[in-house]
Specification:
Chain lengths: 439, 113, 559
């Protein structure tokens, strides 16, 4: 039995790096320290595996890579998408490919926390790493998110129970508030639950900010909740030593989109007149933060990037995946490490099914089912090593704990790049250093 | 005769767990084809636990199975997945983000499977 | 060390060479390069580079810049509007990118190389984010690079200081430098960033930090001691308390006095040379007081942090300062408190000629350059991008070399500056030799880089060849040739070849005696596993270990 400690889990943005994996005969037998989502990620590593195929017929991986290079070398307005369930070096390769062929490149943040990123671009962000939450936070507000189900160990590692430097009593040193349109398993973690009406977040945050600023408001309720309760919340926030507001899709996906978060962040910034008050989005499916990071440092922009003019352009609504697909603008797509077809609105899914679609994934998905070319990959963090980012932008190494008969995402992309370069030599003409002066 | 509800889509633990079995696995399909509803709302529509319901938004329709859930009246919940994607439209108001939560839908009992 | 492949040999003939470290001040001399090094003569057939009428210098060295770190990337993500101002299209073999105040990584390497710079130092990386910093540095082509670890607000360090456990402190610092492949130690507002976690700052060196009950003075002295004990090639590098606040010069001088007898590098000293009573109306320059101190104390080196008018982005670990700037400007504001270690803050900023404060800041930087006598101890920087983007270094050089041009600028800026600054009376003009010192030879010496900053036999073949243009800005912004490790990477101001460059790190011997205790501290207070903290050498695209000296080296000793 081979035991590996300090293993990093790829499933959600908590990116636990303390897993213990037991492997025997090439199969994972036991997983320690993980939540159910992480445990199942590792235990089911051999289930639902994708097989290499072209037009539904079995083909070799080499043939699939070749066919993919063919499509991408000739595409006029391609899309490279996905990239959350993979690791940094593969993400780098995807951007290199996009730069080479002048593609659109976007990732799952686009339909997840992109509004949070847009809000940050608008007003900034007062935030901290999760260790500060563990060590200092005495007031934690979960707003429009459900960490109990989406980020199960967030509560025990960071935000609810852990004993930290200034929170030696753990849970007793914290007040937890849950604000949402419905009760969820996360409500059980909280000291108080505030049920609000759908689509009322922007108004509520605006009112809270006005209260923090000391304005008198002639209102009896907002968001379906009486003002008295909001005044109590504001009091709690001002009196905290170190407060934090965590948010999720409840703010990004509802009416107002990024403006909801702009209002939430302005509130946190305004609270700095009284105390430390941070905001932190609960990012992440997988390594989506990593993709945003490397895309930012290589192109300047965190998502929805277009390279078709030879330089990076950014415009949510124009170059974001949902809009590109809904408007039917893309003529070929490469989807890596995400289930595009399963997670975009139907009209967008219909378009991506109608164009040459290459899917690189360790597992079968809605996308592999309809893709023209399916290239199975070694699963990142399980059968392929690399680097992933936690929701608070901390990078962590990913280990390889089992073998796979298939190449890693990074290797597949590298070979696609080589295939495209061979077909389009004018894109990669090797430079020679200029010789003597005057030459 | 349908009634108007607000649909919340989201992640759930069962959805997160069964996703590893592959999206054809029965366990996964069972999770993402379920619609959680307030008990009184179900009664109002003549629905029993497990009955088929037809959801219709401006953009499309879908058939799910209803089950009792801890929801305020007027709100229904389904996990992320192909079933609910039919209900989500392409308009992102120029933000890139579709209207994936808080979708106005009509819900009625569905005759047949 | 990873070596560049065997390269061509070149004979650079006929150029006027400025190699201050070897006493060469403009004489016409042939420089031979082969296999990536400067050689006495080429063994094999060599290509001749006719440098007649051109100026030959070692490649530039930036001792303090912010180009790669979690905070720098947060700044990129914060400011899409900054990137739209400037784009860098892809070319065969070169990657696309964006420019202006926070360039994307590939473009950062290209832009530096196009100025003739071949080595850059990322001035601030938090330990827990240093893996990120190295990944970004891996994507900055051509130039060699290193990074300084943020240590001045480290909570474990403060515990050791309080307990008087200096030996453990040294082992902990050594473990961090080795594990994280860092070059040196950085202090930013020591103690103040920890206080910012309670919404406060420090006012003086003897303020007591909440909970840890140590003072900035103790932190500074402990780290300076550890730095020398470990024999790190560079001295400690300090962004002093009270940056940017009128009247802060007193604290700056006290910081230096706390380290008398030890080597110390004071960063972006312009921001720390202010007189006045704390408000902006009484804002004055005390650059002369600082320059007098530097002139009298050979243990001190500084980089200036010269203001360049136009767009800037302030990015520092100085959380409380950044909040102050946000309140002052009402610009968008990013802050991140980093567990156990430090913080960061980002606020966009614009320096305006007609703004009295900005114009006086600009003048203070120039006063600093002109009043410090020894060019070996004052270095050119704009604390990129805090006081301005590095692409304007040629403009700063022109201001230093061309007194009439300086006088013209003085007429353009806010009229009150002339009477509040010594600048009108400072007619000194930097010579090419002095420019070569403040941008190459001096930083190399302060960094302990024996093979850089000069063109003697054995040096890395990092060479910049400039036209001898009358307009010194034009001269330094468009080199005719730039060599990196003996290969031509820039020709007539354009990048013609790229390579990964090497990450330089201090070769502190591994010492794991404290690992169990560090592991326990990690378990209790961090949120990552101690075994996942260190960065393996193979994660660096290229690397070179820089030797450490014997412990307890005396101040002022050249390395």
């Amino acid at each position: 039995m081979q035991v590996t400690k300090g293993v990093t889990c790829p499933f959600c943005g908590v990116t636990c790096d303390d897993l213990e994996i037991h492997v025997e005969d090439g199969q994972i037998r036991e997983v320690k320290n993980a939540c159910v989502l992480g445990r199942d990620t590792f235990l089911h590593h051999l289930k639902g595996l994708a097989t290499p195929r072209i037009d539904g017929k079995p083909a070799s991986v080499d043939a699939c890579i070749d066919a993919a290079a063919d499509i991408l070398a000739r595409a006029r307005y391609p899309l490279i998408y996905g990239l959350d369930s993979t690791e940094l070096h593969a993400q780098r390769k995807a951007i290199e490919l996009a730069d080479l062929i002048g593609a659109n490149i976007d990732h799952t943040s686009s339909i997840c926390h992109a509004p949070s990123l847009q809000a940050v671009q608008t007003v900034g962000l007062p935030t901290c790493t999760m260790g500060e939450v563990k060590n200092r936070a005495d007031l934690v507000i979960f707003w429009g998110c459900n960490p109990a189900e989406a980020h199960p160990r967030h509560a025990t590692r960071f935000s609810v129970t852990p004993k930290g430097m200034f929170t030696p009593q753990g849970r007793k040193d914290r007040t937890i508030i849950h604000v949402d349109v419905r009760k969820t398993p996360s409500t059980r973690m909280a000291d108080a639950f505030i049920q609000i009406k759908p689509h009322s977040d922007y108004e509520i945050f605006s009112v809270l900010t006005a209260l923090v600023k000391g304005h008198d408001l002639d209102l009896s309720e907002v968001g379906g909740v009486p003002m008295e309760e909001w005044r109590r919340l504001v009091s709690l926030m001002k009196d905290a030593d170190y407060g934090i507001l965590h948010w999720g899709m409840g703010l990004t996906m509802t009416r107002g989109k990024y403006l909801n978060i702009v209002a939430a962040l302005r509130l946190c910034q305004e609270l700095h007149r009284f105390t430390k008050f941070q905001g932190a989005p609960l990012r992440g499916h997988g390594n989506v933060v990593g993709m945003a990071q490397v895309l930012t440092w290589q192109t300047g922009f965190p998502f929805a990037v277009n390279l078709s003019r030879g330089y990076p352009r950014f415009n949510p609504g124009e170059f974001s995946v949902a809009d590109l697909l809904a408007r039917g603008e893309v003529d070929a797509a490469l989807v890596i490490g995400a289930d595009a077809v399963g997670n975009v609105p139907k009209q967008a899914a219909e378009h991506i099914k109608s164009i040459p679609l290459i899917c690189v994934d360790p597992k079968e998905s809605e996308t592999t089912r309809v893709a023209k070319i399916v290239i199975p990959a070694a699963q990142a963090a399980v059968a392929a090593a690399g680097v992933a980012y936690r929701m608070d932008h901390i990078p962590l190494p990913m280990k390889k704990v089992v073998d796979s008969p298939y190449p890693s995402d990074r290797e597949i992309l590298d070979r696609i790049i080589a295939g495209v370069s061979a077909r389009r030599p004018e894109l990669v003409r090797r430079m020679r250093p200029a010789a003597s002066a005057g030459a | 005769m349908g009634r108007t509800f607000i649909l919340i889509t989201g992640r759930s633990t069962p959805q997160g767990r069964t996703i590893h079995l592959g999206k054809d696995a029965k366990e996964y399909v069972d999770v993402v084809s379920a619609l959680e509803m307030n008990e009184a709302d179900m009664a109002g529509l003549g629905l029993g636990d497990g009955d088929a319901v037809r959801l219709a938004s401006r953009h499309g329709h879908a058939v799910l199975r209803c089950k009792k859930g801890n929801l305020p009246p007027g709100l229904v919940f389904a996990a992320y997945g192909a079933f609910v994607n039919a209900l989500i439209g392409p308009d992102t108001q120029g933000t890139g983000m579709p209207d994936s939560k808080g979708i106005e839908i009509e819900v009625e009992k569905h005759a047949g499977h | 060390m990873t070596q560049a492949p065997r390269t061509q040999a070149f004979r650079i003939r006929g150029g006027r060479v400025y190699d201050p470290a070897n006493g060469i001040d403009g004489s016409v001399k042939e420089i031979c390069v082969e296999d990536g090094r400067v050689v006495r003569e080429c063994r094999g057939a060599a290509e001749v580079i006719d440098a007649t009428g051109l100026v030959v210098m070692p490649g530039g060295i930036d001792i303090h810049t912010h180009v790669a770190s979690p905070a720098v990337n947060a700044a990129r993500a914060l400011r899409p509007e900054d990137h739209r101002a400037n784009c860098c299209p892809r070319r065969p073999g070169l990657r696309s990118g964006v420019g202006n105040t926070i360039p994307s990584t590939f473009n950062t390497g290209y832009l530096y190389a196009r100025l003739g710079y071949t080595t850059i130092m990322e001035a601030a990386t938090p330990p827990i984010g240093t893996r990120h910093t190295h990944e970004e540095l891996n994507d900055i082509p051509i130039v060699d690079k290193g990074c300084y670890l943020l240590m001045g607000n480290n909570e474990f360090l403060m515990r050791y200081i309080k307990a008087g456990e200096m030996d453990k402190l040294k082992q902990y610092v050594g473990w961090l430098v080795t594990s994280l492949k860092a070059y040196g130690l950085k202090l930013v507002n020591p103690g103040g960033v920890e206080q910012w976690k309670h919404g406060k700052d420090v006012e003086g060196l003897d303020d007591r930090i909440d909970h840890f009950d140590v003072t900035p003075r103790q932190i500074i002295q402990a780290l300076a001691w550890a730095n020398e004990e470990l024999g790190l090639p560079h001295s400690i590098h300090i962004h002093a308390n009270r940056l940017g606040i009128p009247g802060n010069c007193g604290v700056t001088l006290e910081t230096l006095r706390a380290l008398e007898g030890r080597r110390v590098h004071l960063a972006h000293v312009q921001f720390h040379s202010y007189g006045g009573d704390g408000g902006w109306s009484g804002f004055t320059s005390r650059a002369k007081d600082l320059a007098d101190y530097v002139n009298a104390h050979p243990n001190v080196t500084v980089d200036v942090g010269q203001v360049v008018f136009g767009d800037a982005t302030t990015i520092t670990a100085d959380g409380p300062w950044q909040y102050r700037l946000h309140k002052l400007t009402k610009n968008k504001w990013y802050n991140s408190d980093v567990e156990i270690e430090t913080g960061s803050g980002i606020v966009p900023y614009v320096y305006r000629e007609k703004n009295f404060v900005n114009a006086l800041q600009w003048a203070i930087g120039l006063e600093t350059f002109l009043l410090i006598d020894d060019p070996w101890r004052v270095y050119l920087s704009t604390d990129h991008p805090n006081a301005g983007p590095f692409v304007f270094y040629p403009w700063v050089i022109k201001l230093l070399m061309d007194a009439p041009f300086r006088a013209e600028m003085l007429k353009r800026v806010h009229p009150r500056v002339a009477s509040r600054s010594l600048l009108p009376g400072l007619t000194r003009e930097y010579t090419l030799n002095e420019i070569a010192i403040v941008t190459r030879a001096g930083p190399a010496r302060a960094l302990g880089l024996r093979n850089k900053g000069h063109l003697g036999v054995g040096a890395d073949a990092d060479v910049a060849i400039y036209p001898d243009a009358r307009d010194r800005e034009e001269m330094f912004e468009r080199p005719v040739y730039v060599f990196k490790d003996g290969r031509i990477v820039v020709r007539d101001g354009e990048v013609v070849e790229t390579c990964p460059g090497r990450t330089l790190y201090a070769d502190v011997p591994a010492d794991d005696r404290l690992i169990k205790e560090i592991g326990d501290l990690f378990q209790a207070y961090y949120t990552v596993e101690v075994e996942n903290f260190p960065i393996p050498l193979e994660d660096l695209a290229g690397h070179e270990a820089i030797p450490v000296g014997r412990p307890g080296a005396r101040a002022g000793e050249s390395r």
